[in-house]
Amino acid sequence: MPSHGVEIIDGIPVHLKDGNMLAFQHGSSLNSEIQPIKLGTYDSTTKKATWSPSDAMTQWLENFRATMTGRSRK
Questions:
Q1: What percent of the chain is helix, strand and coil (3-state, nearest 5)?
Q2: Which residues pair with 43 in a beta bridge?
Q3: What whole-number distance in Å separates Cα of residue 56 and Cα of residue 30?
Q4: Count of domains in the chain?
Q5: Could you give the CA distance from residue 19 to residue 34 in angstroms, rounded to a whole number?
Q6: What is the mean pLDDT of residues 50-59?
Q7: I need a labelling partner for 65 at 20 to 30 A (CA). Which of 23, 25, 33, 57 fits?
Q8: For 34-48, how does the pLDDT look when each residue is reduced to its tens digit (9 = 90+)?
Q9: CA distance 23 to 64
Q10: Where are the beta strands (DSSP E) in the chain?
Q11: What confidence score (pLDDT) does residue 70 get?
Q12: What b-and-e string marks burial along 17-28, b requiring 16 or more CB atoms within 10 Å of the CB?
């Protein structure tokens, strides 16, 4: 798995940058004015994600799950 770019880890879209997992925020990029939300760290050699719970992470995750659209695979 790559150590940078956008990836899906544990069902959550994240930006990977310098070993950090940052919240993927629709319409933003890592160079935008929006303050990134750190979700945890990711080791690309062991492929292990370590989540770092915080108030900002919890709020972002609740919002992300609330706005997800169910998709049928029929």
A1: 20, 35, 50
A2: 48
A3: 17
A4: 1
A5: 20
A6: 90
A7: 33
A8: 678 899 999 988 989
A9: 10
A10: 5-9, 12-17, 20-23, 38-43, 48-51
A11: 67
A12: eeeebbbbbeee
Chain position carrying tokens 């990711």:
42
Q: Of how many residues is the chain composed?
A: 74
Q: How confident is the model at residue 4 (pLDDT cuts 50, 70, 90)?
A: low
Domain with 14, as residue range(s), is 5-67
Residue 43 is assigned to a structural domain of this protein = yes
Distance CA 16, CA 9 (A): 10
Average pLDDT value for residue range 17-27: 82
pLDDT top residue among 18 and 27: 18
Q: Is 62 contained in some domain?
A: yes
